[in-house]
Design brief:
With 538 residues, this protein is of the alpha/beta class. The protein is built from 25 helices and 18 strands. The chain has a 5-stranded parallel beta sheet with strand order 11-14-17-10-18. Strands 1-2-4-3 form a 4-stranded mixed beta sheet. The longest helix is centred in the last third of the chain and has 19 residues. It starts with 12 loop residues before the first helix and ends with a helix.
Length: 538
Amino acid sequence: MGHPPVRLDARDPVASSAAARAGAERRWGHSVNERATAVSLAVVHTRASLGVDAPAVTVEVHLSPGLPSLQMVGLPDSAVRESRDRVRSAMMTSGYQFPQRRITINLAPADLPKDGARFDLAIAIGLLVASEQLDGRHLDAVEVIGELALTGELRPVPGVLPAKRAAAATGRRLILPLANHEEAGLAAGDGHACANLLAACALLSCADLPVPATPAPRRTPPGPGLSLDDVVGQRDAKWALVVAAAGGHNLLMLGPAGTGKTMLARRLPGLLPPLQDKESLEIASVHSVAGRLRGLEGFGVRPFRDPHHTASAAALVGGGNPPRPGEVSRAHRGVRFLDELPEFERRVLEVLREPLESGEVVIARARMSVRYPARFQLVAAMNPCPAGRACESPELCQCAPDQARRYRARISGPLLDRIDLHIQVPAVPAASLLAMRRDNDDAPLRRRVADAHARQWQRRGKLNRELDADELQADCALAPASRALLERAAERLELSARALHRVLRVARTIADLADRATLDDDDLMQALSFRQLDVLRS
């Protein structure tokens, strides 16, 4: 037989409250205050992964009387929902009891999608604190992240480096898997590395959190890299490589097969100045989010990425669900080399246009928009025709003129406009190859490139490739005769406004290499000689 309904009098709030309390006591058999003590709540701080950012996430674990069940809310994906089974097994194999009560887990904020197994440790600690198996005195001072194995071991997760940096900004310490310890040591702040769930619980049970022993990153200075001395001949191409390195310009090399285009491209990172700590952390954060940073190897070294021409658009710029960085972001602050450029699908090449201009990639999804940095130098190489012999010897080439023209037309005009330097790499005579004459010393070239970088950063706080129209007008003032020369060349070469600005940027870089404050006609003529659009469109 059910209890009679409690009638409330809206005109008397005191009487209504008393009546509601009395009705609840009759229904549950004890007072409301006694019932409140039967409900437990624990709040654990952790971090999600959104691009190269790590937004804060609060794991709220609520235990209440009722039939044993577990409900998880807050936009969890399938990997997060599966954590209930991993957490249950990890707790039991570690000697703890899984609460046999009604469990509600909220991942806040509710409008932020949650993905991956990075929340396992936070959920397990929340359950242990809510069920009074673990003291939660330090929960407000720490953030936890990690995937749990069924044995209770902590497995590494991607994106620990951005999470460590974000936790340090809030003044909290990060509890993370032992396998991510060296990676987290690259960022400032305190962190505790634990091998398993028991170690994390023992740490939180301490009266005072111990001082973490975070290893200092072994920042070994990068070596000089590959030397230009290995490339026989190609004096003009080497100078173009120096100009590209000095101003951060994009480069396209056209020539027959086997002339050294790939060798030249691989030697560009060795000409660039060493990375600053901030730039190194930007690169490491991208690789951490991609799940490719497992130690400190390669920290402080400019990346060189050379994807195969069968790569898809998503592989180049990023994508997937959840979104992950692509090749352009993994080449951030480094070099991205595209060999056999016409062999890439045109649709794939066109997705490069926005990153080349903005220096970042935006991946839009229905529930979120993710940004990844992508400020890289593009170096591309291509043959003049499918057979690759047209420039070397037209009579040896078996390709029809229309076939070669269609081959070169696979590269669109807007993409060519965004490439600053277009150069030919001719075949080297056999006599020079056999003589192996080497006349290059990279050390002076690296010093000239570093000095040019220093002048640009002192003048504008950026490289010449990033100058806008107003800055170009101020830094590239031309005499009337030089202006007329540039106008005639722009009409003859049919240069767009974007291409004309890039000619001025290259001329500014050539002047910086010569330590000149103003541009002269030689700088303009040399910059125009690097725009060989007539070769590509013929």
